[in-house]
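Why does residue order matter? Because the sequence determines the fold. Keep that principle in mind as you read this record.
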Amino acid sequence: MTVTSIESGRPQDPAAWAAPSGVPVPAATAGRGRLATRLLGAAGLMGIVATVWLGLFVTPPDQFMGQLVRLLYVHPPVAWVAFLAFGVSALASLLYLWPRTRSLAFDRLAGASAEVGVVFTAMTLVSGSIWGRPTWGAWWTWDPLLTTTALLFVLYLGYLAVRHVPGEPHARARRSAVAALIAFVDVPIVYGSVSWWRSLHQAPSITVGKTYVHGSMAWTLLLGFVSFTLAYAWLVVHRYQLAALQERDEQEGLALALAERRAEADR
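Structure:
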């Protein structure tokens, strides 16, 4: 039995659904991919553990923030990953909308990256609230940075809801890509809110060509950025693979349903 690939429009055998593109993956290549993914995850996990250990037990307290500075090794890295995730989602959405590069693979990447980005945005809001309670005396305040970040979280929850609206795969991918680009408009607003408006939030500790963090604190912060980025990549790879499996199951279910209908018609 053959069916038509949703992505390419070409007939293909269900047995060839070993890869998202419909092309069987050699066992050696699949094995190398799994090993690389495991190494990526292990490196991210070990880096995060090392960041927490250095941040809690090795680096000194700050002259002004005291022990609160230890949140610095987690809060900026998770915020960076959220921006990175939404940037990748926006880029993948643009590549899908561009006719020459249109592929459901980019739609899957956009969705996978946005889901991970929503998780890291929630971590950003939570870690920021923990830092704000002893600093500002409140868990939450309608500060421009906090407000625009909360709006970003809601916008991408809406994007994920749009992705789950039933429809033909390419029609669903098109409206999802447009929603991703609309939501991404808030990312530069969040980044610039500290500078554009009066904010309770401190100025960025690291800017282009200038840093206020030095010594072991700087190296620990750098390790945090690298480690959380590796963790993001590992999560996106697994979420992408899961999305590909879900689409493959949908195609297989559709093919079986059509075969059953044809069999009933031939009786």
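The longest helix spans residues 215-266.
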